[in-house]
Specification:
By secondary structure, the chain is mainly β. It is built from five helices and 33 strands. It has a 24-stranded antiparallel barrel. A two-stranded antiparallel ribbon has the order 6-7. The two termini are 27 Å apart.
């Protein structure tokens, strides 16, 4: 639990504030006291053992995750707390999520130019390559900063940020201290003469450092590690360009070693994206090169713990079930990633487009290794070897693609509205997946090649009812990991009215070479929505695998049981 005195005093202050509002609400006009808002979410599941899919026996039978945000605002002032409960945590979430506690509390003052926060906060500099603090509840990811943050706009178009604090680590904090500054200038806003110009510029830069004491008796480790970046955005009519470059000094981590030795090589990242869009047509292209940008506030952290920064994914983020069987996870230690997407609309009321036209979207994305040479102690005769080579771990040969392919994804979607009430999409997707690299394992088979076809159709009926049908099929000859061979999947979803909906779904691994593993992962969900409240009751099987959001992933175990989810806001 969070136990330091500052946390306690701030929490007691906020609670006292809420209590005071309640005590005096009968005597004082509530509008003068400010407003209280918030939201609540509870997720519970009753677990059944299911040896066929590998669902483990859960001794408690019931898993429960819950949280509530309560925020008070009055004028320029706001304050809030978040209470979290894991009794016991849902399967797939880290064991360190256990018990109850106030995990997030803050007080904030904000006017037109100045914004000051004490306590917990989330923040991002630029694309996030130097700093990104955020929460993704479905991943069990939360690296909120606890400390002090100031934002200031001295003149219109100039934005400054500064912060200091420590990161959340479940119900405690990481050992490292984070310090960061960020500045951005909107050239056209700042200089009056450029206000109406078609060509627009935004430039910015950031610097983030972490301090962690060196307590390793065998190594000399840098206690202060800096990560700096510069960024540029240019907009001219229908054209838009963004670019950011970052450089991080050497930061040896236990989570990244070569030849069982920590890597002292500095990190580097460059992210470029360009887009062009006009009515009926859009083109987007991006490329990034990430080298040794694994930046954490604890050098001993692993998995998704205590990341200070974020490597933005360029590969298409898929949502259909069979396209997420093997999602691509960003590789902060080293990758070159790229994407190109074209969106085109065949005009309506034309011979080819018909009454409503057609929408066509094509995306091609992928990732490769860096072009590098690894050193070891036997490389002393190598022309590029020097006394620091084994500490560096490797040498970068060029900025070109490495020979090792990580991932490829070709996605084609054709969508059409046939009538006012009926629309459909046909999707084809081809993926190449380097199993050993992405899952950090050794299968001896390397690649998975998969073709997937999807039909997604929606029919709107009388009043507010609608029927949606989704059919998917994945073809592959590879049998690597637990999900093997061909898959079929389908969803039938019916919306009765604005309040009630129901869905039935199934995923079937019918192509598995082991007959007893040709399993169905079925599910049934019923939901009710009223105003800001949503209640969903479900029953079924969950396949084990990797679940990703924005290139950040966690392992999800197989499960079987009844689930209940309730969300509301006030």
């Amino acid at each position: 639990m969070i136990t330091n005195s500052i946390n306690k005093h701030l929490t007691l202050f906020i609670i006292s504030l809420f209590v005071s509002v309640q005590l005096f609400s009968q005597q004082i006009d509530l509008s003068k006291l400010g407003e209280v808002h918030g939201n609540i979410q509870t997720d519970a599941q009753y677990y059944n053992p299911d040896t066929a899919i590998g669902a483990a026996v859960v001794p408690e039978k019931l898993g429960f995750n819950g949280f509530a945000n309560i925020i008070y605002t009055k004028g320029n002032f706001s304050a809030g707390i978040r209470y979290e409960s894991y009794l016991s945590r849902l399967q797939g979430f880290d064991d360190r999520y256990s018990g109850n506690g106030i995990t997030y509390r803050f007080a904030r003052y904000k006017n037109d130019a100045l914004d000051i926060t004490i306590g917990n906060f989330y923040e991002q500099f630029g694309s996030g390559i130097t700093l990104r603090s955020y929460e993704e509840r479905n991943l069990g990811y939360d690296n909120a900063i606890d400390g002090f943050r100031i934002k200031y706009e001295p003149v219109k178009g100039i934005y400054l940020k500064g912060l200091i604090g420590k990161q959340r680590l479940y119900f405690s904090q990481g050992p490292g201290m984070i310090r960061g500054i960020d500045g951005e200038i909107d050239i056209n806003e700042t200089f009056t003469i450029l206000h109406e110009k078609k060509l627009r510029f935004i430039i910015g830069g950031s610097f983030v450092s972490k301090y962690q004491k060196d307590e390793d008796p065998n190594l000399v480790l840098p206690e202060n590690v800096g990560n700096s970046a510069g960024r540029l955005r240019i907009n001219y009519g229908d054209f838009n360009f963004t670019g950011e470059y970052a450089y991080k000094i050497n930061d040896p981590l236990n989570s990244y070693q070569i030849n069982s030795k920590p890597v002292y090589k500095p990190g580097e990242a460059i992210i470029l994206n360009a887009s062009y869009a006009k009515k009926g047509f859009a083109l987007n292209a991006g490329i990034s090169r990430i080298e040794n940008m694994n930046f954490r506030s604890d050098r001993n952290a692993t998995l998704n713990d205590l990341f200070i920064n974020y490597t933005p994914p360029l590969c298409k983020q898929q949502t259909y079930a069979l396209l997420t069987l093997r999602p691509y996870a960003s590789q902060p230690n080293g990758e070159i990633e790229f994407t190109t997407q074209v969106d085109y609309k065949i005009k309506k009321d034309t011979k080819l487009g018909g009454k409503y036209g057609w929408d066509i979207s094509i995306n091609f994305s992928g990732a490769n290794s860096l072009d590098t040479t690894h050193f070891n102690s036997s490389d002393s005769t190598h022309a590029n070897f020097n006394i620091d080579s084994t500490l560096q771990g490797y040498r970068t040969n060029s900025y070109s693609f490495g020979k090792e392919k990580f991932f490829r994804d070709l996605y084609i979607e054709i969508s059409k509205k046939f009538t006012k009430k009926f629309k459909a999409s046909l999707i084809y997707d081809y993926q190449e997946f380097n199993y050993d690299v992405i899952t950090n394992s050794v299968s001896g088979k390397d690649f998975i090649y998969a073709h997937t076809v999807i039909l997604d159709a929606t029919l709107r009926m009388q009043s507010e009812s609608a029927l949606r049908i989704e059919v998917q099929h994945l073809f592959t000859d590879q049998e690597i990991g637990k999900q093997r061979g061909n898959w079929a999947a389908g969803i039938i979803e019916y919306t009765f009215n604005s309040h009630w909906f129901a869905a039935v779904q199934d995923q079937w691994n019918y192509g598995n070479s082991e007959i007893k593993k040709r399993l169905h992962y079925y599910g049934l969900n019923i939901g009710y929505i009223k105003d800001a409240t949503r209640i969903t009751l479900g029953y079924g099987r969950q396949r084990d695998g990797v679940f990703c959001v924005g290139g950040v992933c966690r392992q999800v175990p197989a499960s079987n049981g009844v689930s209940l989810s309730i969300t509301t806001s006030f």
